[in-house]
Specification:
It holds the Pfam family AAA_26. By secondary structure, the chain is of the alpha/beta class. The chain contains 23 helices and 35 strands.
Length: 866
């Protein structure tokens, strides 16, 4: 007769409770490894999970709809043949031990196996890893010994690690003929509380809090589960069953749909077949979709209302809807007959899950190859990008990519901020998605000229009270940074012509040659006018822009950096002299206005301007600068004193001043506007990138009232005839409103120092100095969210075309830090909300890889010398 048997070497302990009479108290092994053992702070390890087998999350539109029944039914369907392993994980359990979903799956599978014998054996196990003290006392009772190494109190939780297992003997096997189990059922509860209430209430009441990062770390370790010895070739399926409904809180109070979002595992939604269940099921579905989850199927109990008909209509047959037989209401029913009747439905669900897993894997594996065939990537030499170097991004959560690597999904920090656009953390990303969804549903897209709607008006008001406070009165919307610069140039030229009574010159047939004044190394975009405002560079060369003539006069500015642990200013015009400062903050002090260096700058600028006047018949129609840091030019920090003096001298000559803050604006450099760091104001300024949180393109050109007045008149021909079909599009404006408010609110951005309206220091100063002292490093620039390192290189190894940093970048990507260098300049960019702990971890990785690079370089030099 088929029955239950334990391992021969085991002795069953006496009953502890009726429910856990088969439990054994023994520690379970866990794989924990710190890559960097010099971490000082608790940071959750990066999210990672295998793609060697299907892993699904079981959600429900409400509590008590049958998630655990679905999990148990799937286990029975999957382990219907040999060489199978089914892993059931219950991260959060309340009402424990009277209510234990993992034990229910374990018990019902065992009972079903006994009632329907299979020819092969199955080893089944159930374990509980951590429990609150009340829950632990309930299952361990008076047998608990204060010296017991198994029970360790950690923050109100105990490592109880209770464990039960049994061998379900197959009808055609015997103990003597079977060395290893041929199939496995592994059930685990990760965290348990005694009170049968919402997890956040139970955790608070029982003083057993657990953070979101701890839950994710534990889940990651549990997903590393592998088949036992002898079963390495087993097929595996894993399901993770959530607690309550889709938006039920986790232990910290975070909604579970947000808590598990970093994994973004494909979902099975258990719907509601009762009266009112259609609405609840659709709401749960929309909540998951809004957060980027893929729903493989919806399944629910038949209550005779045919809820599947309207649901299929709503889903438009994009999502399968499965209906289970009605569940017996008799509490004494063992449900075995119901499971038997439901096997066809569970087999269909299993087939859907396996098919979805295979299709997803197939697509992920072919994407890199197809991308190489159909994409034309910007700023990329395709001949230098082999297929294996293509990064396949499955999703994004906050600051991290979820990247497909071989047979797994792993996390990479977006170190280049996706070309400097990114700033949201995971919480803000969800808020942006919600606001944009609302705005798209309310407005779609509406025309902007001569119209007004709330998102555009609110954003304009925020910009004028924020980055434009004290000088700007008008906001001109466009689609991206480059076009914002084009608009700014048109504004500046009109103001210059108006101020200098030159508007009628062209009417009289006279030609006016207008040029811009700019700094070498600056970059203002890829459109034709913006490129003309830049000094010759790889971006403007003949291979890129044969029309380029450089309609500008370009000055060589002094640069600021940390070299060998000291902050220095280098000015080519001073005979390569180097000026040292005790700190970076000293460089931004206005007291420098009366310094010797200020006199040197003033003299140099006046000489340049005088030379231009004497040698050219052109007019300088505008000054355009990137305040403080020139991004695409190699993350060069410009002495703010020089830029301040240059702005003042141009204003003295009625030359309109443009600040290109597409890169520097909205806290990228630690202030809402980089103009605050220069202690001077422009006439016109351009903003984009971080303005929308990087979620969607939008740009704004702000102008003073006198600039606006130069376009007013009785003729439409005098107006600014420039625009885009999607100017001030509602979704972009809504995203920008959310982002601007979020970044500057100390309640949502803990890095904000409200009193001084600046970000706290994000990068560890001592570690920054250590990096600057490496012999492979020429200079370091660190400010706000930006950290950049220029590697010491000469000749072809230096400059934008250099591949000198490629080996370091490759290693850092392996470390979970996605980077894209600017030639021999390696930089990492966090967001305004990134924690200093995360920034320190990033610096540690960079230090380790540059140090390794330095050692290899020294070894090669020594070998060559020998």
């Amino acid at each position: 007769m088929l029955g239950l048997s334990s391992f021969p070497t085991q002795t069953m302990p006496p009953p502890i409770t009726g429910l856990f009479s088969a439990f054994l108290r023994r520690p379970l092994p866990h794989n924990t490894q710190l890559i960097y053992n010099y971490r000082r702070h608790l940071l959750h390890s990066s999210v990672e999970y295998p793609l060697t087998h299907p892993i699904y999350t079981i959600w429900a539109s409400n509590t008590s709809l049958g998630k655990t029944l679905v999990s148990a039914g799937l286990s029975m369907s999957f382990i219907s043949s040999s060489k199978k392993k089914f892993l059931y994980l219950k991260p959060i359990q309340t009402g424990f031990p009277d209510d234990s979903d993992s034990r229910f799956v374990y018990r019902k599978f065992s009972e079903f196996f006994i009632s329907k014998p299979l020819p092969f054996s199955v080893y089944a196990s159930n374990s509980v890893l951590k429990a609150s003290i009340p829950a632990a006392n309930q299952i361990l009772g008076s047998n608990k010994d204060s010296g017991d190494e198994v029970i360790k109190k950690v923050g109100g939780l105990q490592n109880v690690q209770c464990y039960e297992e049994r061998k379900l003997q197959g009808s055609e096997t015997s103990n003597e003929s079977e060395l290893f189990p041929v199939s496995e059922l592994v059930c685990k509860t990760m965290y348990a509380w005694k009170e049968a209430v919402s997890p956040h209430l139970a955790a608070e009441k029982e003083e057993a809090m657990v953070s979101d990062s701890e839950v994710l770390d534990m889940l990651k370790r549990c997903l590393e589960n592998r088949p036992g010895p002898g079963n390495e070739d087993s097929e595996i399926m894993c399901v993770i069953e959530t607690a309550g409904g889709v938006a039920s809180p986790g232990p910290s109070g975070c909604l579970q749909c947000d808590l598990y979002r970093p994994f973004r595992l494909p979902a099975i939604l258990v719907g509601d077949g009762r009266l009112g269940g259609i609405s609840g099921t659709i709401s749960a579905y929309e909540s998951l979709k809004l957060r980027g989850y893929d729903i493989a199927a919806v399944i629910f109990e038949d209550n005779g209302l045919k809820n599947e008909v309207p649901l299929l209509s709503y889903f438009r047959n994009r999502v399968p809807v499965l209906v289970l037989p009605s569940i017996p209401k008799d509490t004494s029913d063992d449900l075995l007959s119901w499971f038997e009747k439901s096997q066809t439905v569970f087999a269909s669900l299993e087939k859907i899950m396996l098919s979805g897993f295979q299709e997803r894997n197939k697509r992920l594996h072919e994407m890199a190859n197809k991308a190489c065939d159909v994409f034309w990537w910007p700023f990329t030499q395709h001949n230098l990008v082999p297929e294996e170097n293509v990064t396949v991004i499955d999703s994004r959560c906050g600051e991290n990519f979820a990247v497909h690597k071989f047979d797994s999904i792993s996390e990479q920090f977006d170190g280049c901020a996706s070309w400097w656009t990114q700033g949201p953390n995971a919480n803000m990303q969800i808020e942006l998605a919600r606001d944009m969804g609302y705005t798209a549903a309310r407005y779609g897209h509406v025309m902007f000229p001569e119209n007004v709607y709330e998102p555009a008006l609110e954003l304009a008001e925020l910009l004028l009270e924020g980055v434009g406070k004290g000088w700007a009165s008008r906001v001109y919307f466009s689609d991206n940074g480059s076009t914002a610069v084009e608009i700014a140039l048109k504004m500046a030229f009109r103001k210059f012509l108006s101020d200098n009574d030159l508007l009628n010159e062209n009417v009289n047939g006279k030609s006016i040659d207008l040029k811009v004044l700019a700094l070498r190394g600056s970059y203002h975009g890829d459109t034709l006018g913006a490129m003309e405002a830049q000094a010759p560079s790889p971006y403007t060369g003949f291979l890129q822009q044969p029309w380029y003539s450089g309609r500008g006069l370009f000055l060589d500015p002094p640069t600021v950096s940390m070299c060998n642990g000291k902050w220095e200013v280098r000015f080519e015009k001073s005979g390569h002299r180097c000026f040292s400062f005790s700190s970076r903050d000293e460089i931004f002090e206005t007291s420098r206005d009366s310094s010797v260096l200020a006199s040197l700058y003033t003299s140099s600028i006046l000489q340049e301007l005088q030379l231009i006047i004497e040698q050219s018949h052109s007019h300088i129609g505008a000054l355009i600068i990137e305040p403080v840091i020139q991004g695409a030019g190699g993350m060069e920090m410009i002495d703010p004193l020089y830029q301040r003096i240059l702005v003042q001298e141009c204003k003295n000559r009625k030359i309109p001043v443009i600040f290109d803050e597409v890169f520097t604006g909205f806290w990228r450099l630690g202030r809402e506007s980089a103009a605050e760091m220069l202690h001077c104001q422009p006439d016109i300024a351009c903003f984009a990138k971080l303005m929308t949180g990087g979620i969607i393109p939008l740009a704004a050109t702000l102008a003073s009232n006198v600039v606006f007045d130069s376009f007013t008149g009785d003729s439409k021909l005098k107006a600014l005839l420039h625009g885009h079909s999607y100017s001030a599009h509602a979704m972009g404006c809504a995203a920008a409103v959310k982002s601007v408010k979020w970044f500057k609110d100390c309640k949502t951005n803990t890095n904000m120092i409200y009193e001084s309206r600046l970000l706290r220091e994000l990068w560890d100063e001592k570690l920054v100095m250590r990096i600057s002292l490496l012999s492979a490093v020429r200079r370091v620039v660190v400010l706000g969210t930006v950290f950049a390192v220029e590697l010491l290189a000469e000749g072809a190894n230096a400059g934008y075309a250099s591949t000198y940093a490629s080996s370091i970048v490759k290693r850092l990507r392996e470390d979970g830090l996605y980077m894209r260098p600017l030639g021999n300049v390696v930089y990492v960019m966090c967001g305004p909300c990134t924690s200093p702990d995360t920034c320190r971890l990033l610096l540690e990785k960079i230090y380790a890889r540059i140090y390794e690079f330095e050692q290899l370089k020294n070894e090669k030099s020594a070998s060559f010398a020998a």
